Amino acid sequence: MNNLKGLSAFPITPSDRDGRIDVGGLRALLEPLIAAKVDSIGLLGSTGSYPYFTRDERRRAVQAAVRLAEGTTPVLVGIGALRTDETVRLAQDARDAGAAAGLLAAVSYTPLTDDEVFNHFRTVARESRLPICIYDNPGTTHFRFTPALVGRLSRLDGIVAVKSPALDAAAVPGHLAELRAATPDGFSLGYSADWNCTEALLAGCDTWYSVLAGIFPGICLEIVRAAASGNAAEARRLDARLRPIWDLFKTFSSIRVVYAIANLRGICAAEPPRPIMPLPAEALQRVREVMAGMPID
After folding, report:
1. What is the mean pLDDT of the chain?
2. pTM
3. Helices 217-228 and 23-36 meet at what angle, rounded to 10?
């Protein structure tokens, strides 16, 4: 994968309490994404709980997803781990299973420097020969990629994209312009944090890495298409319909909310990996009420 564009849908990864992935449940989540023709699937992202699974379980998930996609939908796979050697092995597993690219965060316990992150990414890209998307997720890793560091990394062979957390509407254009100035032509600039991504698309980003698209791909594709056609009013109208979900995401976290939705809709029976807990009864009722008032497919 030399580029990432459009809508990348990030589903949960259903498993039992011992961390064994429910491949049947995963297929039930992925089949609607493939049928909707999302531009890529983001497997084992943060919503997909990648740090909680063993190497063997991650491999099972990638193999199942790639087999199901049958070459029609590129699969982007979370490959982050604490150690560089372990990350290389996870990237090689993803490559061997047929993944299109790896999604790599600066996972750490000891805070990392820019040079340490640069060397980590360079080693993983070189030794795995898997195209890499930089995963800037400071909310979990406590490391933030500056435009300057993204620029350095973008000039390495095999580093093809960045997934940044979307800022608010006023800040996104400036951040996007900084990244464009720092990176070569063709380097894909994408955003996550669903509630800000419509504005990121309208500002001209290449990719929306979406949690909601992992369970409701249709309306997310409509937003992407409206933005791509220059119909800002329609993109914002559709985004406004989703505001109650964005409020749930911001209040309870997107991962917990999407687990709840998947269960309420009967797609799969899954709980987040411990120590993350399912939503308590009062919060679950709020999700149920929001979904009852939002007939989206």
Report:
1. 96
2. 0.97
3. 30
